[in-house]
């Protein structure tokens, strides 16, 4: 079980503060619902809170990381920590019966017991009813954590017996900060924050050589477009087409191209908005000086049109050749 307190503080400061306050004031409840989208830090916060609840020597509402209990939680071998997962479409009664049996065993260690129900919206009526007794009358110190993307999808009898911890979608600013905590450069973090709102996916992409190549190829094309159509077509045939072979790859590349033109518009408007490619600011500034709003708008529309044509399975070579011509037609100098 892994988590990063600094990362959680960046992406979910309110949820972290709320849980730390609950612990500090000795008001740990018997059941919580952690609601948040994938990549918003829900599972990481659950791991943090679980370790805090089971830690033998917490320091300022943070697990000590060194005690025997912390070591067991991190390795996934703590006898007082249990998980329930869906099996197919639902969390089945058998899984709940197994959980209840484990919780009732005398061999468990002294102190609090914690169990986590993943994708808890998949509890059906029968499995939920099995849980109700322990939710209403827990035997000793027992804390349940229900993880879900949508609290309203959880059966009301479960929902009404839990405290709700709401995780906000990760803002672009927070995602950039969180990625930088993971040693991702500001420039790449800025690009990733436009590509996905899922922090886990962004971290994975930051380590992906294919994404790095895609970013480099798109920037090469933008600079070629600013020169002339022949340079642009050369880059398309020598770099773009060999790099982006699958439809999903072309979709991402067109999005990255669109973000580049938006950057140029942002600079031309003297906006303080976060750029997708801050490392290209000097280049974009020169392009902004040489472009009119009308031409940049036409270029944005041309890219969006190409995006639509891609969905209709237009030949990708022809699509890109036509796009280069459209981008040159839309290009005018002030």
From TrEMBL:
Q: Which InterPro entries match?
A: DNA_pol_HolB, DNA_pol_III_delta_C, DNA_Rep/Repair_Clamp_Loader, P-loop_NTPase
Q: Quote the EC number.
A: 2.7.7.7
Q: Which SUPFAM superfamilies match?
A: P-loop containing nucleoside triphosphate hydrolases
Q: Which GO terms describe its biological process?
A: DNA-templated DNA replication
Domain named DNA polymerase III delta subunit C-terminal is located at 242-328
PANTHER family referenced in this protein's UniProt entry, alphabetically: DNA POLYMERASE III SUBUNIT DELTA (PTHR11669:SF8), REPLICATION FACTOR C / DNA POLYMERASE III GAMMA-TAU SUBUNIT (PTHR11669)
Stated name of the protein: DNA polymerase III subunit delta'
């Amino acid at each position: 079980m892994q988590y990063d307190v600094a990362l959680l503080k960046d992406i979910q400061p309110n949820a972290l503060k709320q849980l730390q306050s609950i612990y500090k004031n000795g008001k740990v409840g018997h059941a919580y619902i952690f609601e948040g989208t994938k990549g918003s830090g829900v599972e990481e916060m659950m791991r943090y809170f679980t370790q805090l609840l089971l830690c033998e020597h917490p320091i300022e509402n943070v697990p000590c990381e060194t005690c025997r209990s912390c070591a067991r939680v991190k390795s996934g071998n703590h006898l007082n920590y249990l998980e329930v997962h869906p099996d197919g479409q639902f969390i089945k009664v058998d899984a709940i019966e197994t959980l209840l049996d484990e919780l009732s065993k005398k061999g468990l260690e002294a102190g609090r017991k914690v169990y986590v129900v993943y994708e808890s919206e998949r509890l059906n009526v029968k499995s939920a009813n099995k849980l109700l007794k322990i939710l209403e009358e827990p035997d000793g110190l027992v804390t349940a954590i229900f993880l879900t993307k949508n609290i309203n999808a959880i059966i009301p009898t479960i929902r009404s017996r839990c405290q709700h911890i709401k995780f906000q979608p990760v803002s672009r600013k927070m995602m950039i900060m969180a990625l930088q905590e993971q040693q991702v450069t500001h420039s790449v973090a800025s690009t990733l924050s436009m590509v996905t709102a899922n922090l886990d996916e962004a971290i994975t992409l930051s380590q992906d050589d294919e994404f790095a190549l895609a970013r480099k190829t798109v920037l090469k094309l933008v600079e070629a477009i600013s020169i002339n159509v022949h340079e642009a077509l050369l880059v398309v045939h020598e770099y773009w087409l060999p790099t982006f072979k699958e439809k999903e790859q072309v979709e991402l590349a067109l999005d990255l191209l669109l973000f580049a033109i938006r950057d140029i518009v942002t600079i031309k408007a003297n906006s303080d908005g976060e750029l997708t490619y801050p490392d290209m600011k000097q280049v974009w500034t020169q392009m902004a000086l040489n472009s009119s709003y009308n031409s940049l708008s036409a270029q944005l529309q041309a890219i969006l049109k190409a995006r639509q044509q891609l969905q209709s399975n237009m030949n990708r070579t022809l699509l890109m050749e036509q796009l280069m011509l459209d981008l040159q037609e839309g290009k005018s100098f002030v």
